[in-house]
Structures are given as C-alpha cells and as structure tokens.
Amino acid sequence: MNASAAPLIDPNLGNRMIKVDHAGEHGAICIYSGQLFMARLFAPGMVGELQEFLAHERRHRAVFQAELQRRGYRRCRSYWLCGLGGLVLGLLTGVCGRKAIATTTVAVESVVLKHLAHQLHALRDVDPLAVAAIASIVEEEQHHHDHSAAQIDVRDPWFRALTPVVTAWTEAVIWMGMRT
Ligand SMILES: [Fe+2]
Ligand SMILES: [Fe+2]
Fold it and tell me: What pLDDT is recorded for position 1?
C-alpha cells in the first residue's frame, strides 16, 4: 500500500479543519454563555435549553482539543477572537430575548452544518480520525438548529434583520480561521 498516493490533497487539510473547528466550538460556548447570562433576566424560559446546548458545545470543544493534542497542533490564532466575538454576539442577542436568541442559533448552526458537511466530504478519503471527530458532533448541531428553528417564524422581523448579519459573521470567522 502506498500511503502517499493523493498528490493533489493538502496533507494538512484535516489538521487545519480540526484547528478551525476547535476555535469555532469555543466561539459557540461563548455565544451560549453570553445568551444564558442574559436569558436568566430576559428569557427565563430558554435557560434550560441553553444549558443543554452549552454542555454539548463544551463536549465538542473537548473532542477537537483532544484531536489537536494528538496531532501536536496548537490552537488556532483566532481562538480568543472567536471567544470574544461569540461572547459579544451572545450578550447582545441575549438582551433582545427569545426571538433573537433562537434566530442566532438557527443562523449560526446553519452555517456550521453546511461547513461540517463540506469538511466531511473533503476529508472522507484523507483523514478518517478527523472525519470521526467531526461526525461525532453533527447530530447535536442539527438538534440545536432544528429545536430553535421550530420556535421562529421566518417572516419575523428579528429573523429577517439578524440572519444575514449572523450568517456573515460566522462565515467570516471560519474563513479567517482557515487562513491563519
Ligand atoms: Fe458545537
Ligand atoms: Fe451547536
């Protein structure tokens, strides 16, 4: 067997994707932490689900952290920026209450799910351990998306105003992460 047969594939692709995902999960933890802090005041009915989502995101970050360590890779340079951006987004949307929180989750998780599907496709014959790590979080991300999507009306002004902003923000974070 020749392990080096695939000259067109970047050998670091899996490493870089794991690094970006690790920083992204940190961002997600910070979003949900910020929202949870504000939800206690402005949307108490959402505290339980935000706690559940936050626990999932902590597990996701640990999955990628372990994979990074195994590869001897350092965390992404955008890690702290993801955290700060996530916290600001979480606090601001948390202040605005239930609709803004659910809209943010739908927008962020939509980008995340698309991004994970792309990664799984790109890495499927290249990096089986990265594929296993990524595949292990997809179901929970889908749950975050679906549970929140069921709470919003796509015609709602919150949804229409916030979705493009949060989508662009999330895509920009991933784009920057892949280039650092
Ligand atoms: Fe996650
Ligand atoms: Fe999530």
Answer: 46
Distance 166 CA to ligand 1 centre (A): 16
Question: Which class in CATH covers the domain with range 12-178?
Answer: mainly alpha
Distance 57 CA to ligand 2 centre (A): 6
C-alpha of residue 170 to centroid of ligand 2, in Å:
12
**SS3 per-residue string spanning the chain:** CCCCCCCCCCCCHHHHHHHHHHHHHHHHHHHHHHHHHHHHHHCHHHHHHHHHHHHHHHHHHHHHHHHHHHHCCCCCCCHHHHHHHHHHHHHHHHHCCHHHHHHHHHHHHHHHHHHHHHHHHHHCCCCHHHHHHHHHHHHHHHHHHHHHHCCCCCCCHHHHHHHHHHHHHHHHHHHHHHCC
Single pTM value for the model: 0.92
Which helix (H) or strand (E) segment holds residue 179: the answer is: none
Q: Structural domain boundaries of the chain?
A: 12-178
- For the chain (length 180 residues), average pLDDT per consecutive 10? 57 92 96 98 96 98 97 93 93 95 96 97 96 98 97 90 93 82
